[in-house]
Design goal:
Order of helices and strands of chain A: HEEE
Distance between the termini of chain A: 48 Å
Number of helices of chain B: 10
Oligomer: heterodimer
Low-confidence stretches of chain A: 1-16
Strand content of chain A: 15-25%
Number of helices of chain A: 1
Largest interface: A-B, 22 and 22 residues
Shape of chain A: flat
Helix content of chain A: 10-25%
Number of strands of chain A: 3
Structural class of chain A: alpha+beta
Low-confidence stretches of chain B: none
Largest sheet of chain A: 3 strands, antiparallel
Number of strands of chain B: 19
Strand order of the largest sheet of chain B: 12-13-14-15-16-17-11-18
Largest sheet of chain B: 8 strands, mixed
Mean pLDDT of chain A: 73
Strand order of the largest sheet of chain A: 1-2-3
Number of domains of chain B: 2
Mean pLDDT of chain B: 94
Strand content of chain B: 25-35%
Radius of gyration of chain A: 18 Å
Chain lengths: ~100, ~425
């Protein structure tokens, strides 16, 4: 299994005499520079609006990074909510001077 | 990063695509008035389609799909009449709105011509350029943005770039690139090339912000040593949705125009108005238009001027940048915001509404917010921009430099006497 939990050959197509056209949505091959992030982006992004609960399929989820933080700028086409959804592996807080 | 599917949706501009439907709701400059001095018609490409743009004897402009509906010959080689254009091949005549008026070889009682209509749009001049609208009726008003209508000396540098227009637009909501591409990188080139790079662009960004407004996104930056009272933050300058950016300083006011010719080609124009306070100039009938170079003869990109550096970034990203393999950071919030704005307005158009920036009310001028004191550089900014940007290729470069220099001296005299 790949680190992502997907089978290592998940991106490959069965060999045959009549190969299908290239799948534009196929993930990059495992081991390529970007593959783990690409997989996680597709798998981890929010699917439903945090405000109204509608599917985000018609909206836009744009991932960016800040150090270890993964931030999904999320726009819902249903209710127009725009905001960040931040994925945490660990919640840590910097205490201000006091 | 985006999915491949999202990237496709945001970058394909042809007829029937979601982005193509959105972009067809706006007017575009596609030629200069002087293009019609020698011949009254020419072929232009816009949004993945070829068009014939023509000027009638009385000075009206028309735009019609290039291929004649009869046997598909080019109407750009047609005969221009006062009320439209006639195909040179068999004489079919079309009105400005695309109706077929005549089919000379067909019998007079034929209603064949009523069943033929060419795709046609609207065209009109503004600011020395010919603008076209090829979307559905009712056509919106052509926005008369300030730089196109104010008095001054105007110069237009233009070129065609082999890349999608969106990657150029994303550059307009990416303030940080200035201090690196036009600051640090320019300085590096100066050091190895033996020239002095302009210093205005080297200041460090402390804070950036993006605000949506009725014509797009206002971009603000606070540079090291400046405060929120500086023009760069207090006023900023706008990305003009969906294909422009208004920028300027020291009475050098510019609209950067990115016309999507098709998915992989963009007509890039720097439309610049010079109108310095204290300056004097003679009335100019037409802007000075010139094609500026961005490649050396060996094919390498010319990077020792500001816009050449931008072009290096846009063109080297590829014809259509693969956004499924990018890594955005927090400083790219403006880029994500722009993508959201496109997506949002695609949906508005699908629902039958007017997208952002549609103007329905006749007007004289639309003034856009734009900083005057750019980068806190004072009067030096105009000089550095003209010498270090694409304006260095302007046939009137020396006149422009003199205009700003004399105006600055006049302002200084006024200040000293006051």
């Amino acid at each position: 299994m790949a680190e992502s939990g997907l089978p290592a050959d998940a991106h490959r197509r069965p060999a045959g005499p009549h190969p299908l056209p290239a799948d534009p949505h196929a993930l990059p091959p495992p081991g390529e520079w970007f593959a783990p992030d690409a997989e996680r982006h597709l798998l981890d992004r929010p699917r439903f609006c945090p405000m109204c609960g509608a599917s985000l399929d018609g909206g836009l989820v744009s991932e960016s990074w800040a150090a270890d933080q993964r931030i999904f700028l999320t726009w819902c086409a249903g209710c127009s909510w725009l905001g960040d959804v931040v994925r945490y592996d660990e919640v840590s807080i910097d205490e201000p001077e006091h | 990063m985006l999915t491949v599917e999202q990237n496709e949706e945001l970058t394909r501009v042809g007829a029937g695509t979601p982005m193509g439907n959105l972009l067809r709701r706006y007017w575009y400059p596609i030629a200069f008035e002087q293009d019609f001095d020698a011949r009254p018609s020419k072929t232009v490409r816009l949004l993945g389609e070829d068009w014939t743009l023509y000027k009638t004897p009385s000075g009206r402009y028309g735009i019609i799909a290039e291929r004649c509906p009869h046997r598909r010959a080019s109407l750009s080689y047609g005969v221009v009449h006062e009320d439209g254009i006639r195909c040179g091949y068999h004489g079919w005549r079309f009105a400005l709105d695309g109706r077929c008026l005549e089919q000379p070889a067909e019998s007079d009682n034929s209603n064949f011509r009523d069943r033929v209509r060419a795709k046609a749009g609207r065209a009109q001049p503004l600011g020395g350029m010919v603008w076209v609208y090829v979307g559905p009726d009712p056509a919106p008003e052509l926005p008369r943005f300030d730089v196109y209508v104010l008095d001054g000396i105007r110069d237009i540098g233009y070129t065609t770039l082999p890349c999608n227009w969106l990657q150029i637009m994303e550059n307009s909501v990416d303030p940080h690139h200035v201090e690196w591409l036009h600051g640090y990188y320019f300085e590096f080139l100066g050091q190895i090339g033996g020239f002095e790079a302009p210093k205005s662009f080297q200041k460090k960004h402390v804070r950036v912000a993006f605000d949506e407004f009725e014509y797009g996104i206002i971009k603000r930056r606070m540079l090291e040593g400046n405060s929120d009272e500086n023009d760069d933050w207090k006023i900023g300058h706008p990305l003009v949705f969906p294909y422009g950016m208004r920028v300027g300083g020291q009475w050098v006011d510019q609209m950067q125009i990115r016309v999507p010719l098709d998915d992989t080609h963009t007509w890039k124009l720097f439309y610049t108005l010079h109108h310095p306070e204290g300056g004097r100039w003679e009335h100019q009938d037409r802007p000075v238009a010139y094609e500026f170079p961005w490649r050396h003869q060996d094919g390498a990109l010319i990077t020792d001027y500001v816009e050449g550096q931008d072009i290096m970034a846009w063109v080297s990203q590829g014809e259509i940048v693969d956004r499924s393999t990018e890594h955005l950071g927090r400083s790219d919030a403006g880029v994500a915001m722009l993508r959201k704005m496109f997506k949002e307005n695609m949906r508005i158009v699908e629902a039958g509404g007017d997208p952002l920036g549609t103007v329905r009310t006749p007007h004289e001028i639309i003034e856009l917010p734009c900083e005057k004191d750019k980068f806190g550089a004072g009067a030096a900014f105009a000089d550095q921009w003209i010498k270090g940007g694409s304006m260095r290729y302007a046939p009137i470069k020396d006149e422009l430099l003199a205009l700003h220099k004399d105006a600055a001296a006049a302002r200084a005299r006024t200040a000293a006497s006051g």
